[in-house]
Predict the 3D structure of the following.
Amino acid sequence: MYNSQGGWTILHISILYITPANPHPPQIITLDLPGVSSDFARAAFEKYKSPAHPPITLIEGFAIETLPTLVGKQFDLIFIDADKPGYRNYLDIILNLNLLVPGGVILADNILRRGLVADSSDQNPVTQEGPAVIAQAKTLDEFNKKVEKDVRLENIILPVFDGINFVRLKKDLYVPTAEEVSWKR
């Protein structure tokens, strides 16, 4: 996450390229699973530590569990590159806990899943990779449709590489605070 005052990316290296472009030192928070990936991230953050790169907070654990720990914070940019079936749940948590500022953007990566979201027929050679890949494509398609139907959001999918869904929280809509949502649980 990335915020001009605070930030998250599950793809750690990406944030190292975003932050030097910001004239105000951002706060960056990244969520990742413990182990090889978070060890890699920690080493990269240490290697590239400089005044041009603000400190990065690494929170280890499953995003479904660690996202709620960010309640009370808001982010300008949230980059999701995680387990594909979890994208819909992450979107719900982000919106329900008011983690995205009005006008803020969610970048959801790998959203076209090698073309399977658009074409899961036998004509697409990727379907030969098996049912798990096809199931991922189905959940990503459901995520894209959920975004499209949510009146609080506007989006555009860029079909570059594996696809990126740029999702923007509209500024002119009321978004309840985490406290307002918590009483409904």
About this structure: The chain has six helices and eight strands.
